Amino acid sequence: MVGMNAIKKKITRTQVEGLVILLVAIGYLWEAQNVPLLYQVPGVPGPTTFPWLLGIVFGLSGVWLLVSPHRLIARLRKEAADEDEDAPEAPAPSGAAFWDPITRDWHFYTIWAVILGYLVLMPSLGFPVATALLLAMFVSLLGEQRWWVVAGLALVATTVIYTGFALGLRVRLPLGVLEPLVK
Amino acid sequence: MFEHLINGFGVALQPFNLLIALVGCLIGTVIGVLPGLGPTATLAMLIPLIFSMPPATALILLTSVYYGSMYGGSTTSILVNIPGESASVITTIDGHKMAMQGRAGPALAIAAIGSFIAGTFAVVVLTFLGAPVAEYALHFGPAEFFALMVFGLATVASLTGTNVTKSVVTTCLGLMISTVGIDLVSGAPRYTFGNPFLQDGIDFVVVAIGMFAFTEVIITAREVREGTRAEVVKAAGIWVSWKEVVYSLPSIARGTFFGFLVGMLPGAGATLSTFIAYNLEKRICKNPELLGTGDIRGVANPESSNNAASGASLVPLLTLGLPGGGATAIMLGALMMLDITPGPLMFEKHAGMIWALIASMYVGNALLLILNWPLVNVFARIMTVPVKYLMPIVLVISTIGVWSLSYSEVDLILTAGAGMLGYYMRMHKYPVEPLILGLILGGRMEQAYRQALIISKGSNLVFLQHPISLVLLIGALLFLFLPTLLARSKQFYMARKTSVEAA
């Protein structure tokens, strides 16, 4: 536990982000080398000139986040005020597990999972079924406990949205599993 | 010019365009009232709808939603003490106090009057300023345009968010995403990793809906679970005495003026304009100690300022093709999707459309005044629609928006990725607007950059040899570094001072 806190104090979140940004910049510049140079005319900027400029600025910003004197200022402040703004984590109460925030916020993470699932599965599951499921799960996760409200809202909203967009605005919405029923 | 304007009114007053303006104003007011759902997310959601419309109509819809949202934001600030938009945060200071003192009516009325005056002022200036600015910008070559876009991105990066480096990071990321796809000059595929879906590049709508709409749904969902929502104060009457109007007029005038000036600057936007105008108001007005205690001027000033600023931000957008924030960036993207090249040529090539838009803004401001004044209690009741029912529906409509672009599963997965990245960015103070701006401007910026280099035979010095481009680049540098240097030296100074004192 002590070791963890010591490491946390040495590396701030911003520095980790800076490192990630630097790595992304390196990857971006590396990939620029794989761009095929068709019809390259000497003296004329090619398809990688602009990406090189961007990658370098991006990487330098990452380096700056990694090494900026922000932490030095924070430490000076801390010495003055005897509290550290940059590393706010108080020593966790004993017995607090790593997944404590996850269990506390499970609603929130489940909402994320439901949304991602919806985006990935909607084309194959079909719009009506996926949307009704999404609405039902989302509304119940937000604290609605009356099942008839959940079911009613899911069905009515799905029908209204499907009718409005598919028939009214002629957006092609996939029927998915309902396809055999329609045919 | 007046001939153009009259022709514009001819188009704007066509029944269908009038209806669209009315619908846009209504949508704008509603999203202005609803906390959580902002104009940028709504505009992104509307984009797929506008493909079937003529360009003038599409633009009328988008702009009326945009400036309409500034009207609605004040309603909840005053009645509920929850700003509907960030641009109405200042209004809560005096506005809600007035409501608690039983003066909600005058507060709402002066907000509507101030908004109307400021909105109309902004359109009048746009009418007179638009064409000359565009004509001046016609002299710009590629080097100047590149420098102009650098300047725009630098001001946005400098003024949004708290940490300039983080803003630069997100701007660059947006530009980098814009390089994905087939290079239009050489035909070489870039960053497609062999995936044919990426050859057309990444659509900004996909990223904008993921980063604005999806993250707003999630953030609001989290608030719904964690907090409770406040009670709505009902406004008994919505009249304001003539005396109070006269008392507020100077504040409206100052709010309008400063709001417009600040709003013209890319990146400053309506929210910052209200803070600046209100702070200046405190120094300029008589009896400044009354501000903050439920003074009607404290409503009149920021509400005029945010409307003037949102109108003013259309000046660089329409004349230079330079958007100043998320909402105007999405409008620019929409223009490009409608095959209209934004920039100074718009006033020449698409004069009919531009003047129809300007005319429709006169109409829209009048519509908003008529809509908002008597119906304010009705709009305030929208607040009581439980967000838990609304947010999932926003989510579904956003998904349809992405899906309808090209019916591709890749787009949905990219949206999911943009949503997750956007959520992380918003939680850890990486501003999202510069990314969208970079993504939308990236293509034109690269084109200008390469054209300038072709003309100069590969020498980067070309950007420093042209006086306009040099001035713009110096301005960009100043914007990027001055706030940082000031803040750093102050931080250093304060940190050192406190440490010395403690010792």
Could you characterize what this model shows?
The complex is a heterodimer of chains A (183) and B (503). The model of chain A is unreliable at 83-96 (pLDDT under 50). Chain A folds into 2 domains: 2-96, no CATH class; 104-182, no CATH class. With 183 residues, chain A is mainly alpha-helical. Chain A has 9 helices and no strands. Chain B has 503 residues and is mostly helical. Chain B has one domain (2-233, 240-494). In chain B, 75% of the residues lie in helices and 1% in strands. Chain B has a two-stranded antiparallel sheet with strand order 1-2. In chain B, strand 1 and strand 2 form a beta hairpin. In chain B, 59% of the residues are buried. The model of chain B is unreliable at 499-503 (pLDDT under 50). Chains A and B meet through helix 2, helix 3, helix 4, helix 6 and helix 7 of A and helix 8, strand 2, helix 9, helix 17 and helix 18 of B.
Total helix count of chain B? 21
Secondary-structure element string of chain A: HHHHHHHHH
Low-confidence stretches of chain A: 83-96
How many structural domains does the protein architecture of chain A include?
2
* Number of strand segments of chain B: 2
Determine the strand fraction of chain B and express it as a percent band: under 5%
| Major pleated sheet of chain A | none
Helix content of chain A: 55-70%
